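Need residues for this backbone.
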């Protein structure tokens, strides 16, 4: 799975920017490092395996994060 740097829309509507991929210091699991493009611009990490998942809400299926562009 390749996760590109750039802007993404979360299925709930907020916008984020992927900064890069890091590895967990203990498990070596790949983690996505991303910044909120709203509020204080907080930094977040999420397991890469969750990044490209689909989620179901109100009977509809969505990609958790949709790539918007650079």
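Answer:
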């Amino acid at each position: 799975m390749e996760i590109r740097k750039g802007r993404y829309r979360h299925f709930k509507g907020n916008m984020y920017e992927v900064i890069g991929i890091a590895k967990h210091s203990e498990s070596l699991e790949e983690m996505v490092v991303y910044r909120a493009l709203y509020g204080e611009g907080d930094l977040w990490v999420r397991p890469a395996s969750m990044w490209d998942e689909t989620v179901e809400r109100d009977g509809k299926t969505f990609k958790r994060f949709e790539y918007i562009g650079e």
